[in-house]
Each structure stands twice: as C-alpha cells, then as structure tokens.
Amino acid sequence: MKTSTDPVRDYLSAVEREASALPADRRQELLADLAEHIEVTRAERPDAAIGAVLAELGDPRTIAATALSEAGNGTAGAPAQGGADAPVRRGKVHPLVPLLMLTIPFLFATVLPDVPGVQFCSTLFRVIGAVLLCTSVHWTSVQKTTGVLLAAVLPTVAISIWTWSSAAPAGDGPALLANLATLAVLASTTAWLWRVRRA
Questions:
Q1: For residues 81 and 78, what is the distance between their CA atoms, to the nearest angstrom?
Q2: What is the enclosing helix (H) or strand (E) of 9?
Q3: pTM here?
Q4: Which residues contact 194 (CB under 8 A, 6 or more apart)?
Q5: How far apart are alpha carbons 186 and 150 in whole angstroms?
Q6: How far apart are alpha carbons 192 and 186 in whole angstroms?
C-alpha cells in the first residue's frame, strides 16, 4: 500500500474525511479555503516548514467540527473522537477588537494624562484587550503570549518604572521619546498580530 508523501494533500484529505457530514458544496468550499490559505502562507513565508503552517491551521477534526457547527449540523449525538464532549470554540469577537483595545487606550492616556479616570479606563480596556486576545481563536498560543507580553506587559512595566523611579530623566522631552517608543512597540506588535492572524 502506497503512502502519500504530500503533507498538504494528507491534511486536506483528513479534513475532508472529518467533514464528510457537510454538504458536498460546503465541504469543497472549506477545502478550497484551506488550500488557498496554505498557498498564501507559504508565499508570504517561504522559509516556514510546511508542518508549522499546517499546525497553525489546527487539527483537522477541530476544523471539521467548527465547520459542521457553523453549518448548523452540530456535533450533538456524535461524540468527539478525542473522547471529550467539549463544545467547539468559535471566534465571536472580531480579531481587530483586542488589538484596538490594547493600542487605542494608550493614546488617550498619553494625550489626556490629567483627565480624571482616563488612566483607570485605559488600564481596564487594555486588560480586557489582553483577555480577549488570550481567548481568541485567531492566534496560536505562542502568538498570544508574545502579543500580551509586547502589547500589555512590557509597556505597563516600562511606564510603571518610568513613573515611580527617580532614575527617569526630568522634562517633557524624554517623556515624549519614551511615549513614542512605547507607541512604536504597540503599533508594530498590533501590525504583526494582524498579519499572522488565522481566518
């Protein structure tokens, strides 16, 4: 018996098998979307291993279960092959929401530092943005961890050290440079997360 040496074909075949309960047209649409996503990712990152690209897409059973759930077929009555009857997680929050919640509040806190409640609201929105990012289905665990560290933890630690430390230089010039550097880190992290998100 011959075994296939094409990991993409094997992956798509596994998705097709797992999604056999889908209507044929919806199943073919799903496979075409996945194939297109794989091609685009390989074109954008030619040095990435195909195994890593497929791992980012997720387990074929999860993809099929999500497609079945979205198609209204559900998976009730058919126990998950992993043995767990856990519901399939779907992205209910647009991926732009956590990214904006991590970035925009910093601008308000920087522009309006003396307005009562702005600092508190900024912190609250950024915490909510970090939670939404961590619970999103649009990024891998490594991407989520990196995003939270760069967009939430690092700026918060830097601002805290700057505010409470006597080592921070006096004057508006150094503070402006520090704010611009923080904004650059936030903007580049947000752009990276947007670029690597999963559909």
A1: 9
A2: helix 7-18
A3: 0.49
A4: 95, 96, 99
A5: 7
A6: 10
